[in-house]
Amino acid sequence: MKALIVDDESRVRKAIRLLVHWEEHGITDIQEADNGLKAIELIQQHRPNLVLLDMLMPLTNGLELMEWIHNHYPDTKFIVISGHDDFEFVRNTILYSGTDYILKPVDETAINAAVGKAISAWKAEDEERRAMHQQHVQVNEYRPVYSEKLLTSLIDEPFSQTQAARRLQDERIIPDTVSDIRLAVLQVDPSDEALYNRFGNHQDLLMFALLNICNEFMQKDRIGVAFRHFSSQRNIVIMVWDQLATFPTRLKEINSGIHRTLSRYMHFGISPTGLYPEDMPKLFNHGLSCLRSRDLTVLNQFLHEEVSGVRGGDHGLQFSAYEDRWKLAIMSGQPNLIAEAVEEWLAAMRKNGVITPELLERYDRDIERFLLRVIHEAASPLAETLLQEYKEESAASAKPSPDKHLFSYAEWQQYWETTIGWLAAALQSRKHEGQDLIHDITQFIEQNYQNEVSLYDIANRFHVSREYISRKFKQRHQINIPEYINRIRISKAKILLQNPGLKMAAISEMVGFKNEKYFSLVFKKQEGISPTEFRKLHEKDS
């Protein structure tokens, strides 16, 4: 077996080498690292069974290393050896499934007891893993696809319950005597990449492994059955028809079995007692509601029997109260204002206390609607294009799952900052594009002033709305497009009027006026005198 010692002090690493009875524990390969980053490299290269690590180290500290091991090598056991009796350090050691937390100076008896415990746990879990690996991926008598579809139909198709129940009894999957039942819904975290990677990202294999463990406990005393709910691919339903009062205790045993095998604890939503089969839909929905309303800030609570009173629509915290601050940050395009706006919202979430998957989804849905409104308001003529880009960006981004087994404020903070940061940058880019667009429209007018140039024609040519062009053009030039065209025409007409050989009607037509009378009217309005008077004044000056 292999071990890795991680500490930035060489004397501590040397002491651990001398104090641990390596051969007694079956450890023959011992590596050392003086920082967390080097430890990660060695773990990837040598795959140690056990890591003994310090908390305060350069580059990557002990907290970050624990989390990394938990996410990437959950089978590896680790022991924390620290000089700090810090509650947060101990809490994170428990959170990331550490075997022990030992204080410096290291005691020989204590460290060998901890190493022995870790190695024993690793061997026990390895036996379970080997046993599972040797099992053929096949459907057994309790979980054929046909049976799972029949069991699912008891929930999803209440009108065909009688027929489905009769078939399940004929198949000897559910006894004839079943009357009272309870259900539990086991939910798999869809964002748990480390867990999915262990099964080659093959969801069916993961679900099969979980069903095997669940049914091992259910079929032991023939008290129930576990099956995959076909309509929701990541939910497993556990139905019990005997020993109903001790159902939560049995679920704890199942969860311990899952942790031994997969190094994960799962969340279960548990129903009250109901009648079989007519109450199956109601009991299933109750289990889902328990999961959706569980408090994500509470650690190490995996069984949920009550539907929380804090529901998505009843909660006091409303994102609408923070929209102005977010909009100001987005329109400014400044990363520090964006970070402050998101942090203010997260602080409100923390202060509010309870956070449930249902609430998280509502918050994110409200933020999504707000961002769509910002796009429509700030990028009016180009909104459809920007909306499409936003949808593509959202689909590609790593959005945290509200049902994640370990909730993290930091993950949601990073996601929201990234999302509104992208939108701010996109809007800034569109702003520059809008300025370039008005420049192009101005050039087009100056080159075609002598022709009929309408707002409708310009909008069609540049593929933007008339309202947007009109508003942006006036912001740039302080006058509207017809006035701007007339200014150009009159300016050109003043030059042509200095040529006595040109008739007034010809000049009017040359600068784009089809009506000489209208030309005179516009000229006098702009210059204060008629074209004829302008010509006479010019002749006198000459």
TrEMBL record:
The record's subcellular locations are: Cytoplasm
Modification sites for 4-aspartylphosphate: D54
**Positions of the HTH araC/xylS-type domain:** 439-537
**Keywords for the protein's UniProt record, in alphabetical order:** Cytoplasm, DNA-binding, Phosphoprotein, Transcription, Transcription regulation, Two-component regulatory system
Q: Where is the Response regulatory domain?
A: 2-119
Q: Pfam families of this UniProt entry?
A: HTH_18, Response_reg
Report the superkingdom from the record: Bacteria
**PANTHER family named in the record:** HISTIDINE KINASE-RELATED, TRANSCRIPTIONAL REGULATORY PROTEIN HPTR
Query: What is the protein name for this chain?
Result: Response regulator
